[in-house]
Structures are given as C-alpha cells and as structure tokens.
Amino acid sequence: MSTSTAGTAPAGAVRRAPRPRADALRNRERIVTAAREMFVEHGPQVPLDEIARRAGVGNATLYRNFAERADLVREVVLSLMARVTERALEAAELESDTFAALRRFTHAAADERVGALCPMLDGGFDEDHPELRAERERVEETVRGLVDRAQAAGRMRADVGVGDLMVAIFQLSRPLPGTACPNMDRFVHRQLELFLDGLEAPARSALPGTPATLEDLRRDTCTAAARR
Question: What pTM, to 2 d.p., does this model score?
Fold first, then answer.
C-alpha cells in the first residue's frame, strides 16, 4: 500500500511567508500617510492614538504594524526620501533644460515638506539602519545627478553644492511644527524662486566659504545632536 503525499511539502522545501493581504497593506499605507502629515503639522511626538484616528484604523492595527514609535518614524522618513527621489526622477524626465529640471524638483521637494525630516532625524531610531542608508544613498545620488547636469551644461553656478540646495529646501519648506500659518505655501514658493535665481549661471556675486556637501550636512547634524 502506498502512502499518499497529497498536501505535504516536499522534503527540504522552504515555506514562504504569506503575503500581506491587500487590506493590511492599505492600512499600513494609511498609517504612514497620516503619520507623515501629522509629523509635519505637530512634530514627531504627536500621540500615536491621534495618528490612528486620522488614518481611520484602530490603535491595535497601528501597533501591530509599528510596535515602537521609532519604527513608525523610520517608515515615514523612508517614505519621504522615496518620494523626494521620485520627484527628482520626474523632473529629469519631464524637463529637457537642466536648470528647469532643477527648478521643478526644488518646488516639488518643498511640496513634500522635506524640512520635516530635520526634527524626525533627531529621533531615537537607528540612522544607519540598512533600509535608511540605502534610501539615503538613492536620493543623494539622484539629486546630485540633477545638480551635476545643470552645472555641466553651464546653467547652474559652479560654486555651490548639493548641500547648499538641500539646506535651502529644508529651511524654506516649513514653518516649524505647530506654527499656525495656513497660507505658508505661497511664501515658500516665492522664496524658493528668489533662491533659484541666485543659483543660475552666470553668478552675480562671489560666495563666502566653500560649497556645502551632503556629507557636511550629515556631519553637522550629528555634531549638533551630540552636543544636546
């Protein structure tokens, strides 16, 4: 008599983890979107219960996806960096003029509220987490490509660096969390245009110091955090 093997896995087979259900993925995306919005509006210490309420999910669903606040903050930072990378890629694809691509990206990045990254990066999560490091390298490489192409084409002054661009976007893309200024967008984009006029070649003045790099920004952020 032969023994039936129906319904049993072959010897040595590796069981695959079940794929998350579509509704579970949608809930996770809603939580991250709500958290990103509320972090920008109120800072990274906003109550998690409030995030769950805005996302339209129960507290248990939020904690099932993000057991610790640091997990959620890291996911929001990853989401923001991925969105900024996509804005840079879109700008390069849609604009044939290299400085027009840089201009489009700058405004699009401001609309993503990348300035909200600054307070979130002061959080208690591991900034060298492999996913964060990979996404950071991707966004840096993409934005650096926009700057390099604009400078190589003679459309952007050569005495500025990627860090100079990102400092301006960080500073101009927010009021600080909790600041009541509902019409801030019109001031943000106006100030960005003034800044962009200063980036175009030929340069109209000599800049003090040296171009800021992304490495400079990371080093200064770490130093400031250590002093606290």
Answer: 0.75
Burial of 115 (0-12, 13-18, 19+ CB in 10 A): buried
Measure Cα distances from 7 to 4, 14, 15 in Å: 9, 15, 13
Residue pair 171/113 in contact (Cβ under 8 Å)? The answer is: no
The tens place of each residue's pLDDT in the chain, 228 residues long, gives 444 444 555 555 555 555 557 788 899 999 999 999 898 888 778 999 999 999 999 999 999 999 998 899 889 989 989 999 999 999 999 999 999 999 999 999 998 888 766 666 555 567 778 998 899 899 999 999 999 999 999 999 999 999 899 888 988 876 544 554 555 666 788 888 888 998 988 887 787 888 877 777 666 554 444 344
| Residue 114 CB coordination number (10 Å) | 23
